[in-house]
Amino acid sequence: MKVKSSALFPLLRSDTQGQILAALVLSERGETASELARQVGTSLPTVTRELGRLVDAGLLVSELVGRRAVYRPNGAHPLAEATAEIALFTYGPEPVIARELATVPGIAQAMIFGSWAARRRGKPGPPPRDIDVLVVGGADLDDLYDAAERAEGVLKREVNITSLTPEQWANVDDGFVATVRERPWVDLQVDTRSEHDVGAGPGGH
Fold this sequence. Notes:
Oligomer: single chain
Order of helices and strands: HHHEEHHEHEHEHHE
Strand order of the largest sheet: 5-4-3-6
CATH class of the largest domain: Alpha Beta
InterPro entries: ArsR-like_HTH (IPR011991), HTH_ArsR_DNA-bd_dom (IPR001845), NT_sf (IPR043519), WH-like_DNA-bd_sf (IPR036388), WH_DNA-bd_sf (IPR036390)
Helix content: 40-55%
GO molecular function: DNA-binding transcription factor activity
Distance between the termini: 21 Å
Low-confidence stretches: 192-203
CATH superfamily of the largest domain: Beta Polymerase, domain 2
Pfam family, one: HTH_20
Number of domains: 2
CATH architecture of the largest domain: 2-Layer Sandwich
Shape: elongated
Largest sheet: 4 strands, mixed
Organism: Microcella putealis
Structural class: alpha+beta
Protein name: MarR family protein
């Protein structure tokens, strides 16, 4: 099967490679192939194949811990620092923003939309200069802005938060809501801490 090349980082063979690199850069202890498959949302054989390619390229190293192979970035590689920065810049928004939003109570749903989401879904275009995030629920705005600021410190780019109530998000006659729903977005895996029941819509398309 032909693998689609990355629209976010054309030097990578695939988006899966970029997601793996970002996940490992953010990991403090290293990850197994199974753990990465869950994080990336891709099959274990696909992740295992991409890990092998990254190890062969010298960008990752692996070691046996018990019976499991644990993968980490190869800090001795001449391009280690540059690769880590690029991986975070291009594929870091999902895990980084989700991690920061998980500290904020009252979030029913969160997603990245706009140009970054379009690139992530394979639509060609210039590199995004910022990240647009939509949060649905009843979270405190100050808490959301604080989370965005922390994410900006890691991602080195602006994170713009828009907050809507579930009722506002359900109003498909609203121009902003209709535009977001019609265009690509990327769901963020944030723990639901709201009692509101929010329709999933065509998310992640």
